[in-house]
Amino acid sequence: MARRTQDPDSASSRRPTTRAALSSLQIPAYRTLWWAGVFSFISVQGQFVLRGLLAWDLTEREGALGLVYLVFGLTMLVCTPFGGVVADRVPKKTVLLVTQALIALAAGLMALVVITDVVTFWMLLLASIAQGLAFAFYGPARVAMSAELVGRDQLGNAITLSLLSMNSTRVFAPALAGILAGIPAIGIGGAYLLSTIASIASLVQIFRLPNMPAAATERRNPFKEIAAGVRYVRNDDRLRRIVVASFFVIMFGFNYVAFIPALVEGIFDLNDTWVGLVSSASAIGAVAVSFPLAAKADGPGGLRIMIVSGIGFGIGVMLLGGAPSIWVAFLIVIGIGGFTTAFQSMSNTLALTQTDDEMQGRVQSLMQLSFAGFGIAAAPIGALAEFIGLRWALVVMGAVALTATAIFGTLERNVVREPAFT
Fold first, then answer.
1. Is 2 part of a structural domain of the chain?
2. Which of the residue ranges 159-168, 256-265, 292-301, 369-378 would you say has the lowest mean pLDDT?
3. CATH code of 67's domain
4. SS (H, E, C) 135-161
5. Is residue 11 part of a domain?
6. Which residue would you say has higher pLDDT here, 28 or 61?
């Protein structure tokens, strides 16, 4: 099958209008998938905050926060390559239904054990494993299905709007989870219950999606298919650079979110509500850049946006380490959110543009391994934070993301750019 390409003349004629920014949402099936994502991310974003709050409340140690994300990351590391194979070989609607049901079940069980006051740290670890397993299959299937529903010409727009569905929920879902957790009559258990309801709402939307055949019908050994996907990326120089750069930037830079509870409660001595508010701050920046980015995502300049945003992301995390007050930290996290969204949108768009249709799921699974790396790196970074202090650990995390992006940009300047990357 022919590789995806873009017409630079057609793309460059686009203007950052509201219609252009929301063009993919004019497709009914994609609109249903988008709303399914909104409800799913409301659930997931709330659970991220609640897991951090529970881990901190049960242990008051940065290492425990890191361990919760470590088991999440290890699960994704093991399962995500298989998630890519499944996305290419099984109808994506089926994959989304099963994985969203698992997310709902994990949230419901956590609500039960917290409300009945029998929660322990190992239960928190099991919930992280369950969500890591669901993400490993949900992510590649959702992105690949977006590409199928909108077609090649609107690929970048669809990916950016998919990230918008995630980031818009981050404006209020973490804050809402933190606020509810801080209300004695509701608490963390009640917040988990709300997360369960949101997951069920996502399931309802997924049921409404059209039944579409798998991208490929040939069945082979899954390990051989994973190996084929790795070879495919390895043999494409540009695709390999995009995947590797994304891996290191997300693995280290994005880990700042794991330590927001420690930053807010441990350094600034504030409560659970502030954890939710700071967690939501990055979404403000993310939503702010999403509309202009969605309108331009299928045009030229994607590589430049990816490099600039990756550098800004790294610098932002470094500055967060030196934030003198909660309000300065809040503003910095807003900026980080904007840079993160731009980096993720462009890296995913460029990777999919560079990829043949029958390899979409497997390439996306390799891109998603960066979040497995993010979870795995959280534990040693947590240990590092206990040794040198959280502020210096944040500086190190940002410096790694900045360096990885700079190396990627330097390598790209040494090759001839294709039209989609100019």
1. no
2. 292-301
3. 1.20.1250.20
4. HHHHHHHHHHHHHHHHCCCCHHHHHHH
5. no
6. 28
- Tokens 């990357």 label which residue? 421
What confidence score (pLDDT) does residue 187 get? 82
Q: Which two tokens stand for residue 278?
A: 């700071």
User: Is the CB of residue 156 less than 8 Å from the CB of residue 345?
Assistant: yes
Q: Which residue has the tokens 């390409």?
A: 5
Largest CA distance in the chain: 61
Q: Which residue has the tokens 């905050």?
A: 49
**249 in any annotated domain:** yes
Q: Which domain holds residue 138?
A: 20-421
> Alpha-carbon distance 192 to 142, whole Å?
24
Place of tokens 């917290």: 114
Per residue in 32-54, pLDDT (tens digit) is 998 998 899 888 888 877 887 78
The answer to whether residue 53 is domain-embedded is yes
Number of domains forming the structure of the chain: 1
pLDDT per position as a tens digit, 273-283: 787 678 778 77
pLDDT of residue 11: 40
Q: Cα(257)–Cα(320) distance, rounded to whole angstroms?
A: 11
